[in-house]
Every structure is written in C-alpha cells, then in structure tokens.
Amino acid sequence: QKEVEQDPGPLSVPEGAIVSLNCTYSNSAFQYFMWYRQYSRKGPELLMYTYSSGNKEDGRFTAQVDKSSKYISLFIRDSQPSDSATYLCAMTPFGAGGGNKLTFGTGTQLKVEL
Amino acid sequence: EAQVTQNPRYLITVTGKKLTVTCSQNMNHEYMSWYRQDPGLGLRQIYYSMNVEVTDKGDVPEGYKVSRKEKRNFPLILESPSPNQTSLYFCASSVDTGNQPQHFGDGTRLSIL
User: Fold this and answer.
1) Cys bridge to A105: A64, A69, A89, B25, which one at CB 3.0-4.6 A?
2) CA dihedral defined by A94, A91, B37, A39, rounded to 10 degrees?
3) How confident is the model at residue A99 (pLDDT cuts 50, 70, 90)?
C-alpha cells in the first residue's frame, strides 16, 4: 500500500465549477501538507502549504487537512480553464524545506472546459 | 529571475551510453535534489545534497550518480543507462532549513532505447 493515495483522474469540469481534489495517507507522522500544480511540460510549483489540521484559504483555493481521518483536500472555486493541470499532494513529517523528504501522491489531472 | 535550469530538456539515447543531465540554480540554495516522475508512481527522490560535497541517497538511487562540487550545480549522471531509466526527471532546490518550499526545474524527458 502506498503511503499517499491520490485518484489520478482525469477529472473534467465546466468553467465556474467548484473542484474538490483529495489525498489520503497512512503515515500518522505527516504534519506538513502541500499542494503542487504541474502544467504540461513544466515542473511542479507550490500552490498551498498547511501545517497540521485545519483550513487555509488563498484566493480561489482552499486547502483542508483532517489528520484524524488522514485526509487532505484542495478546493478550487470558480474554476477557470487556466486551472487545467495536474495537482500533486505532498506531505512530510517536518517542514517543506530542504532536507525534509517529501512524499508525493501520483497526481490528479484536471481539465476545466469552456 | 529565480530559477532552476535543467539541460537537456529532451534526450533519446541508447542503452549503455553514459549521459549527464545538468541542473543549475541561481538562488544560492544549499539544498538540491533529483526526482524521477513515472505514471502511477508519482515523484520519487533519487539523490539529494544538503550542501557542497554532501550528497545522500533518496528512495531510488540505483543506476544514478550525482556530484556537488559547486553550490549552484548538481548534475545527475547515468553511467550505463538502461531502458528502465526512461522517465521524466526533475531537479529541485531550496534553503536547507525551515519551511521554504522546493523550487523545481521544468524537467528532462529521457528515453533510453
């Protein structure tokens, strides 16, 4: 069993929809949770970064962590075609900085259609 | 502009022919790392380096070598490439402590025939 599970999709939604992307994990030591966005032919870029349980909002994006259920989510409101990308969750027992090994999900491919 | 630069971006080569993928960062980051990305397996760390002359194995180091002679450069070396090393490779860098995230390059797609 993988430490981090993520539905690969693809997920196709109409423009303006609310998108929910999720990951589950098995390692209870994970405390820092990240969402990366990866456009085609590009490297991952950090989108959201949260510590422990709770919610964090940044514009149209909300990251949610439920440590009791070992479940994290990324919500995208008013989705746009420019949100079409692969979304990777990542987590670590320590901070996101160098030297702290990140464990990634396999990524969910999202397509937002006009 | 802060960036991590990888070269080449694409390479098709044959089994056994030594190759090097270069990685350079202009952010004075101490930490650098190499990942490979495969369908269904996600990003897996190959090697990492906490600073000059300090390198260590990640999750999948077999068949790879790295060196860190200068802070800005972290080349990935495949001494005798094999088809199972066909993959998309990413270099990343960050400061070595705290919660500053890793910055990724745009990737190198390697095909080993």
Assistant:
1) A89
2) -120
3) low
For A81, the 3-state DSSP assignment is helix
Query: pLDDT per residue over A75-92, tens digit each?
Result: 999 999 999 999 999 998
Please check whether residue B34 is in contact with residue B20, taking contact to mean a CB–CB distance below 8 angstroms: no
Give the type of residue at A100.
Answer: N
C-alpha–C-alpha distance, residues A47 and B50, integer Å: 24
**Tens digits of per-residue pLDDT, A12-37?**
999 999 999 999 999 999 988 999 99
pLDDT in tens, B11-30: 999 999 999 999 999 999 99
Measured between beta carbons, the chain A residues lying within 8 angstroms of B43 are 44, 88, 90, 102, 104
Sequential DSSP letters for A10-61: -EEEETT--EEEEEEE--TT--EEEEEEE-TTS--EEEEEEESSEEEEETTE
Q: Which residues in chain A (81-100) have CB-CB distances under 8 A to chain B? A: 88, 90, 95-99
In whole numbers, what is the pLDDT of chain A averaged over residues? 92
Residue with tokens 């952010």: B27
Distance (Å, rounded) from C-alpha A107 to C-alpha B88?
14
